[in-house]
Amino acid sequence: MTDFQLLGVTLSVLLLSTVVVLLWRRRRLPVMLLGYSCHLPDSDRRCTMDLCEYLGLRMNIYDLQAREFMQLIYSKSGLGEETYMPPYLMQPVERLVVKHPPAIQEAEEGIFTTVSTLLCKTDVAPQDISLVIVACSLFSPSPSLSALLIKQFGFKESVKTYTFSGMGCSAGTMCVDFAARLLRHQPG
């Protein structure tokens, strides 16, 4: 083998090695789910899918197109034949007042109990968490749901918070994708 051929082989191997290393470094790192928790409301809030749909649509404030869309969402939501409703929606329509405080109470109940359970199950302290992302399809309060969470559990001041709310049913999946992207670029 001549010196020129040896140089060509060496450069080819070096180039191939560089390409392999660059591809290896650019690969998508997996993001693992280490623990999860679900909120289970009190049994007195349990209702069937039909009752849930009725309670949601009974105020007759929606036009036909909106009602049909909501019925489609109900049928594809995965709620099943047994689901739960917040107490204020179960009141008679004459007494039904949809206001901010009951919605905040419902959000706090669900989020706080879920996060508390998750922190206990995973044995992670709030001060060890550097990123908090909250998703809520419809409700978008001020202060944000992530701010309420930070205040309740005493996360460190440098924690980064994001709230995906008022975005409809896609908020949850967008939130999971966003979290995965953030964790790939800033592990921990």
From TrEMBL:
- One of this protein's GO BP terms? fatty acid biosynthetic process
Q: Which Pfam families match?
A: FAE1_CUT1_RppA (PF08392)
Ranges that cross the membrane: 6-24
- Where is the FAE domain positioned along the sequence? 25-187
Keyword Kinase listed? The answer is no
Alphabetical GO CC annotations of the entry are: membrane
PANTHER family according to UniProt: 3-KETOACYL-COA SYNTHASE
- In Swiss-Prot or TrEMBL terms, this protein is called 3-ketoacyl-CoA synthase
| One MF term in the entry's GO annotations | acyltransferase activity, transferring groups other than amino-acyl groups
Record-linked InterPro entries: 3-ktacl-CoA_syn, FAE1_typ3_polyketide_synth, Thiolase-like
Tagged with keyword Transit peptide? no
Q: Which Gene3D superfamilies does the annotation name? A: 3.40.47.10
Q: Which domain of life is it from?
A: Eukaryota
Q: Which UniProt keywords apply?
A: Acyltransferase, Membrane, Transferase, Transmembrane, Transmembrane helix
